[in-house]
Amino acid sequence: MKRSAAPRRAAVVPTPIRLSDEEVAWVRSMVIYEDDDLLALNKPSGLSSQGGRGQVHTLDELLFAFAKPGKARPRLIHRLDRDTSGVILTAKTKPAASALGKAMMARRFGKTYLAVVTPGPPDPPAGLIDKPMRREEVGREAYMRICAPDAEGAESAQSHYRTLSVGAGAALLELSPRTGRMHQLRVHLASVGRPIAGDVRYGGALSLGGQACSRLMLHAAALDVPLADGARRRITAPPPADMSAFCAGLGLVIPAV
Q1: Residue 35 catalytic?
Q2: Long-range CB contact pairs, 138-143, < 8 A, 24+
Q3: pLDDT tier, 6 (very low <50, low <70, confident <90, very high otherwise)
Q4: What is the CATH number of domain 110-223+236-257?
Q5: Which CATH class name applies to 15-106?
Q6: Whole-prediction pTM
């Protein structure tokens, strides 16, 4: 007997979030690129991409500021850690979200980050860190740990790095991850004795050169995006003022990315 097809479930439409005029203006001020399919923002440090705790809205919720009547809000294509600033990409249409999601999974995006590390540049000053890692839970917190390739839960992870500038007890690196594991750059740099400044979770310094380092000094400076017509678009975001001032105080020169 031929079975009848199961009824299709209706797509779940998220309930719109009520945003204040200040929140709408704030998230709109983050826009650095927009076309018919894409919306890119320069996310500030301290703003969770999704799933944040407390009463503060996440970036995913703030995207309702761009929703038109009867239309869905833009969809996040990837995430940044809460304390990481920089380029984050959203799709304005369902087809664009599907295509960009597949391109992200196929590693067709190019990502460039800037990071301040201590106590100086890695040795050698440029190279590839190729160390697998796995996720571990400690209480309510999740960590990534370097592990053997055949360890249970091991995931391959590769990160290119290049020293851009050397200052007083610190260095500015350009980072290009090949893979996209949680906390990948942070864990890889800590594993070679060069943790990112302000990274409490993985051993980063909390002060340098007489300056307090109140947050993770990691910035997503550029994203090279494959477009639907086969072309590519490079979207860049300047480092925030606090990171620029921190680098200047250490004698680190930030080049154009």
Answers
A1: no
A2: 141/201, 142/182, 143/183, 143/201
A3: very low
A4: 3.30.2350.10
A5: alpha beta
A6: 0.91
